[in-house]
Amino acid sequence: MQVQRPVVHHPQRFALLVLLALFGCGGGTGAPAEGGAEPTADPSPGEGQTLPRSIAGSAGPLSGEQINYVAGDERSVGYLAVPDGAGPFPALVIVHEWNGLVDRVRQVADDLAREGYVTLAVDLFDGRVGANPDENRALVGEVRDNPEKMIANMNSALGYLKGRADVTGRVGAMGWCFGGGIALSYGLDGDDHDATAIFYGQLVDDPTRLATLGHEVYGTFARLDQGPSPESVAAFEAALREADIANDLHVYDEVNHGFWLHVDQDPEVRSVPALDAWSRLVAYLDRTLR
């Protein structure tokens, strides 16, 4: 899937369309879908790139800090990772999977800070973490039933980052699975920001809705996945093209749901596509936020 030409900003329309994935995250085993986009060879990673320690399962101690970023809300405790140096830096809001804000996501925030981004990992579950699929679905259901609270939480994170003296003012949103759907939903309905990066997650195939995006979209997906399926990704790409929204999307062969955030679960299969997805992400963030 090729990068489409950039477009001018479209005014956002606050419709509170929340895109919540109710399937499992973190290494699903969905069967290959029939039909959909034709398979293509996975690209090769960029030279000099290495897997982030977080997704390879080799991260060291956390180096960031917990913060309250929603005014008057002591339960939403995010995790802030800041690059070394004086800045100013671009920034990222990252959104956890369906089980909540856990250390794997905090470790990714640390790795993104090493890449030069002030990174805030948000908490959409009021400090709670699910211990099993039933608890995870219940937590996701609460967000589904109160989309205004989710948007307000994300807006608070965005406002916090834009208000920091060490942030340039350019901020992107990124998430995985549940968080991927949230990142796209926030791109459609949230306050103005500059990038949306989706790893799996529920998608939209309505060009009219997608036309409200004002920036290029990044997406990494798996062919052996049903949430979203390759057919859903193809429909998403077609809708982005019709809406004239720049995009860098790729469906990786031989991997399934959750492959990128959990490379250590099957490193022999997941390492090469995960490294390429990381190389694409680094390039995407560089051209949209720097």
Number of H/I helices: 8
Largest sheet: 8 strands, mixed
Helix content: 25-40%
| Largest sheet: spatial strand order | 1-2-4-3-5-6-7-8
Overall geometry comes to globular
List keywords for this structure.
single chain; 290 residues; alpha/beta; Rossmann fold; disordered N terminus
Plain-language structure description:
The chain is of the alpha/beta class. It has 8 helices and 8 strands, in the order αβββαβααβαβαβαβα. The protein has helices at residues 53-56, 103-114, 133-145, 147-162, 178-189, 207-210, 230-242, 267-289; strands at 65-68, 77-81, 89-95, 118-121, 167-176, 195-199, 217-224, 247-256. Strands 1-2-4-3-5-6-7-8 form an 8-stranded mixed sheet, sandwiched between helices. Strand 7 (217-224), helix 7 and strand 8 form a beta-alpha-beta unit.
What can be said about this structure in brief?
By secondary structure, the chain is of the alpha/beta class. It is built from eight helices and eight strands.
Secondary structure layout plus pairing:
Elements: H1 53-56, E1 65-68, E2 77-81, E3 89-95, H2 103-114, E4 118-121, H3 133-145, H4 147-162, E5 167-176, H5 178-189, E6 195-199, H6 207-210, E7 217-224, H7 230-242, E8 247-256, H8 267-289
Parallel strand pairs: 3-4, 3-5, 5-6, 6-7, 7-8
Antiparallel strand pairs: 1-2, 2-4
